[in-house]
């Protein structure tokens, strides 16, 4: 699973913003998670190569070329850096999703309070004497000013 199609690079280039819609955030999260899977596979391949070279050295006394060690360790560091950046993107996406969820919950709570208030007013109008109902409305009007 080598990143031949640029999945990791594309995921690293995604800009996360609170202004993104929920579908955009979910799509971005899926892209980043796909990149994480590819990155994990690539990291496993690198680790396997290192283990193989280490066991060959112990078994046969054959050392890998210093240039190969330099390249493989550089690749390992690069993959660790990419893993960290992708994890930061997942964190940013999750924060944005929580913000959207909180805003949606607040809108639902506001609607529920408004609906309850209208129901209360209607029940008061139906069950209280007209004079009492009017006095209550006058008090509410004074509180608004």
Keywords:
single chain, 0% strand, rod-shaped, 145 residues, mainly alpha
Q: Could you describe the 3D structure shown?
A:
There is one protein chain. With 145 residues, the protein is mainly α. The chain has one domain (7-110). The protein is 85% helix and 0% strand. The chain has helices spanning 7-13, 22-60, 66-127, 130-144. The longest helix is centred in the middle third of the chain and has 62 residues, at 66-127. The radius of gyration is 30 Å and the shape is rod-shaped. It starts with 6 loop residues before the first helix and ends with a helix. The model has no long low-confidence stretch (mean pLDDT 91).
Number of strands: 0
Percent helix, as a range, is over 70%
Tally of individual domains: 1
Overall structural class, as computed from helix and strand content, comes to mainly alpha
Number of helices: 4
Question: How many strands, which pairing sense, and closed or not: the largest β-sheet?
Answer: none
Termini Cα gap:
67 Å
User: Which consecutive residue ranges, at least 5 long each, have pLDDT under 50?
Assistant: none
Radius of gyration: 30 Å
Mean pLDDT: 91
Strand content: under 5%
Question: Shape, please?
Answer: rod-shaped
Topology pattern, helix = H, strand = E: HHHH
């Amino acid at each position: 699973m080598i990143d031949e199609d640029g999945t990791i690079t594309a995921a690293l280039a995604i800009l996360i913003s609170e202004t993104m819609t929920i579908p955009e955030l979910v799509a971005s999260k899926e892209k980043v998670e796909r990149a994480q899977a590819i990155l994990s596979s690539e990291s496993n391949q690198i680790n396997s190569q290192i283990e193989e070279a280490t066991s060959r050295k112990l078994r046969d006394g054959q050392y890998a070329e210093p240039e190969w060690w330099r390249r493989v360790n550089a690749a390992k560091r690069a993959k660790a850096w990419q893993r960290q950046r992708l994890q930061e993107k997942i964190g940013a996406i999750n924060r944005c999703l929580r913000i959207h969820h909180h805003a949606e919950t607040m809108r639902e709570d506001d609607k529920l309070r408004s609906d309850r208030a209208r129901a209360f007013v209607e029940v008061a109008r139906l069950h209280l004497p007209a004079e009492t109902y009017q006095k209550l409305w006058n008090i509410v009007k004074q509180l608004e000013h």
